[in-house]
Amino acid sequence: MKVELENLTKRWGNVVGADSMNLDVKDAEFVAFLGPSGCGKTTTLLMVAGIYKPTAGFIRFDGQVVNHVAPKDRNIGMVFQSYALYPHMNVFQNISYPLKLKKIPKDEMQKRAQRVADMMGIGHLMDRRPAQLSGGQQQRVALGRALVKEPQLLLFDEPLSNLDARLRLSMRSEIKRLQMGLGITSVYVTHDQVEAMTMADRVAVMKDGKLQAYSTPDELYDRPRTLFIAGFVGNPPMNFLEMEVVRENGDYHARREGFDVVIPSDRGEKAAGKGNVILGIRPEDITISDEGTPAEVFIVESLGRDDLINMHIGEASIHVLADPVLGLKMGQNVRLDFNTHKVQFFDPTTEKSLLWA
Amino acid sequence: MAEAVMGRKVIRGQKPPSRWAQFKATMGAWGFMGPATVLVLVFFFLPVVILFVISLTDLSSSNFSDPLTFVGLNNYVRLFRDRFFPKILGNTFFYVAVTLSCFNVGMALLLALLTTHINRRAGFFFRLIWLLPRITPSVIYILMWRRISHQPPFGLINQLLAPFGVEPQYWLFEQPWLFVILVNGFVGASFGLILFSSAIEAIPRDLITAAKVDGASTWQSIRDIVLPMIRWPLLFVTTYQTLSLLTSFEYILLLTEGGPGLYTTEVWALTAYKRALKTYFGHNQWGYGAAWGFVLVIIGIAMSIIYLRVFRFNELVQEPKIDVL
Amino acid sequence: MTTATFESGSQSGVKRFLGRTLPYVLLVLSISPIVLGYAWLIIATFSYRTEGLFPIDAAGNIGGWTLSNWSFLTDPAIWRVTLNSFVLAVGMVIGVGFVSSMAAYSLSRMNFAGRKGFLSLTLLLHAFPSVTLLIAIFFVLNFLSKIPAIGAWFGYNTLGGVALVMISLDLPLGIWLMKGFFDNLSWDMERAALIDGASRFRVWWEIIIPLIKPGLAALAIFNFLSGWSAFLIPFTFTVGSKVANLPVYMRQMISDTAPTNWNMIAAVGMFQLIPVLIFFIFTQEMLLSVYAGGSKGGT
């Protein structure tokens, strides 16, 4: 099923939950709503579910406006962060509840619930109460309940946030596999960008109730259109340095105190002559080498596989990922090599990208 | 062009069902509210109106079947000119002030401090015993108190005090007010006791420990820490119980019926009740009784509005997080 | 400072007494009237007559235990009266439980026109001195009596009428209390049920009510006790013994012109008190929570 949001807005008095959202979800597509808490992603999702009534704008399912269609008539399934299982019902009753409400005959109900439970790997737990299940099992029951009525749209509201890190990883791939296998259009709300980037076909980044960007994970990562997206997507976050780009002898130089790097002309020409601009570069695109920009090691944080190193270049401070084998120490002087094919440039006043306008 | 067409289609297709849906939804909600609404209308709203209307008439059991005669504010004038009006007013003030300060707030606070000071289980036990009068049926409860304060040779007090050489007497008769206040106070104190003790137990232990370390005596830590921390429950109990006491009369009715003698322990609410509904002579002066009652209703409404304002109850009300009905 | 150090030796004993023992002494003293009252009640039910706490026999000596006070149990009237009490109590439990949990649900969880107004009204009525309305309610019941069909069940001098009045007067507290329980429920669960295809009524009945059983139970106990013990309203709105409940029946025994058999009244009282005490023993903590919760205004 195709979902379109047109100028979708939700306000409570003066509080704006979602402000003029415009986006579309293609049939069988997996879309993630990504943003910090309070950005409006859950509000938007609940409007799609029919729980919240939009203040303005339209929601269309396959071209039909569904603003006033009750949640039960939207043929959707939803999975919640808190699982929202019914504690007084056992697993079978939980999963079959949507079917019971549809007045499906008993034996068919039994069959369908069992099939979904087996698919989720919880077929042997049918008599248990939610309280007797682990977090992962509870989430599978919740998924089963959402899938059992064969919905045309699946909604996820931070479904993995309450799980421990390892379980989260396996559930992530499992949900993705299920969604691809069943081909159900899905909207997935999360504040975890790794989840969004790894699972979604397209990611909608939101902030303060507004849609900031809506594109594929690769595009968000490689071609961020605003400073906010550049800083929000990617972990550890992108470094930002204010500087000037000038053309000298046919080369483009990005310069500030203690820093002078030659930029490829395709990127450099767009930032040159604009006065002060913001240069963005990801920590993984900076390497420690024998020559290049001199810098001083300030703080070394071990991330396990890598060290995250805070360095000073003159007054400026940047983060760099380095191999722990190097054994860098505070106060050590090193030289940095920048992968200039990956640098970004932003206008400091509009905060828009100079490269991907 | 295409968009405009779509927009119009949307309006044509969606607006009417939306209003219908909204109406249906609102009706659904009022379906839930229905029984409560009917009962509130019939047994709160209607009575307030009826009470006022009756208070403007001379309706009594002797002219019940006649058409209503309106007498204007005569009943109210009569009320204020009543020979016993000053006595009843004074009684009511005395009863409310003394019971409230000695028991509903004073005793409740003292007991709360004591029961939170001692061992937890023991404290819980004493609180439960204090709850007993509240759940004991009033008729039985009064029966007990009558026997406690009875004349010789039946009364319990006489028997207990005899070894100390106290002259036996009919305590209830000699000291009616003492027992009116004790009887009401022993029921009233448990309300404040329960609220105060849960408030005191909610005070972080660190605060008290810190005060102790700073060298505060028990009394100082109560005055400087406990009392300021429970000032909201204190204020709440005080206002709420003032209102309850002002309008309560069941125990007085059962214990002394306002006596002994003429209007010795008669309070405002009891007067209203007796005038209108339970007179000795079977002559129920509904109109006159209603005037007494309506004055109390006005006081009650005024006080409940004040107390809702003071406690900002409106702020406790949260918005529903589901729009659909 | 110096005095404190100086006297510390002799003071510690006094201080320990003040800190440890005095609270118990005061508390025991404070409950003595209650204990005395109950002690007398129990003794009186099993004796011919009592002087103070002592049972007295015909000769005026201590003694004279008897079961004759309980002879009322063979009188069919007492069972009808008990049944009335029971019906009233159960009526209260069902009536207040049902009506207030429905109203509280929609006040807590639904967004509808008039919600704010009704909420403020509930709050206002929660504090409102409803006994002052008895005079006017008398006329309402009289009017209900005149309506055919309804009047025979819910008019003046009917058990239904008394129950209706008691249910109504307890509603504001019930609604406010239940609203507190509903307010604390998970929104996601309700959203899930709506998406699963349930109507609001089914959500209420199949999902929400099972979840607030503890709250309903607490409210039920509270209402059973107040229905079982009700005196003022049955006394005011009934005449004669046909629809009297236990407290009214006891009161009628007292006000008879014939000499009162106090010890039999005590036995009737004891008889009525037994279910209360059983309830009390098994549900103390729930009761405390109702009193604390109801007065605080929900949460």
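The interface with chain C takes residues 46, 49-51, 70-72, 74, 76-78, 80-82, 84-88, 97-98, 101-102, 142, 145, 149, 157 of chain A (CB under 8 Å).
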